[in-house]
Amino acid sequence: MINMGNIVKKITLLMFIMIALTLFGCNSTKSENKIKVLVPSGIPFVAVGDLIDQKDIVIDSVIGPDLLITGMISKSHDIIIAPLNVGAKLYLNESSNYKLDSTITFGNTYIVSRKSNTLNTIEDLNDKNILAYGKNSIPDILLKKALDSNEIKAEISYQGGIDQVIPFFICNPKYPDDVSCNPPDYILCAEPLITKLELEYNMDLNILDLQAESGSKLIPQAAIFINPESENLKEINIILNLIKANVEYLNNNPKEYANKIVNKHSYFKNLGVKIIESSIPRSNINYLNLSDNIEIYENFFEMLNNYNPNLLGGKIPDSEFYR
């Protein structure tokens, strides 16, 4: 008998490979002498958005971690911006030799409720139900850390990703009196989707900062990784300075920045100027070099190992992981 399950798996794998080849091409690090940058969609993409039309840079934006992992393993890009834990795990598994250079975004994890549901402090979550996403992911671990640190007992249910949480929370905004509309009282959320709920769906929200509630001042999330085998190491340093300057500019001039990038990519156009501008202050975009800050990363890895040893195998990257 024909095993349809195996056929579907093979077709899915083939499609994934074709997408990866289309995105990455056949060359490893050089594309017409331009620096190739791979970045996940969302706030990390916003953080480098104004560099899209720079003549010496090619920026590829992808959704989800799979193509970031593929990029690191295949050494497809000079610079890859990825979740810190993803780069660390690949290094510890000896699947990647990309070096950690810096961090570009920090804690962007919040609990959100409608104004009708009290949310002044984390104590308001005691004995409550929270719809979260990405079980055992960094946002989920930060949620658990915040709850544990404050001795709060809450029931957490999960969706696969944040985009799957939002429809439950929106429910059916056109028909709010529909008896079938029963949105969760509290959700785990992040920018720019929080601002999108406020502005596009006209929701009046309570927003609780989990970074502050967990007692963690800096939670590194999206990090900049460098391909040490790139032929463009000198040029990479120039690009890193451009990224650093870009981050400083967007934080000081969010309205101007939003207007500058909105037409540079369909992702920004779909968000719109107002959402980009308004989401920046809560997005915790900052450029942090490694120098004198390795302790921040090591504390982060320790936190991951404490809450889920499977994420990094209970290990911490050695000094060779750092650029």
Q: What are the salient characteristics of this protein?
A:
323 residues, alpha/beta, D-Maltodextrin-Binding Protein, domain 2, 6-stranded mixed β-sheet, 5-stranded mixed β-sheet, 13 helices, 11 strands, globular, disordered N terminus
User: SSE order in H/E notation?
Assistant: HEHEHEHEEEHEHEHEHEHHHHEH
Note poorly predicted spans: 1-22, 25-31
CATH class term of the largest domain: Alpha Beta
Output the CATH homologous superfamily of the largest domain.
Periplasmic binding protein-like II
The name of the CATH architecture of the largest domain is: 3-Layer(aba) Sandwich
Determine the mean pLDDT: 88
Distance, first to last CA: 53 Å
Q: Helical percent range? A: 40-55%
Number of strands: 11
Q: Kindly name the structural category.
A: alpha/beta
Shape: globular
Assign the CATH topology of the largest domain: D-Maltodextrin-Binding Protein, domain 2
What is the tally of helical segments? 13
Compute the CA-based radius of gyration.
20 Å
The fraction of residues in strands falls at 15-25%
The strand line-up of the biggest sheet is 2-1-3-10-4-11
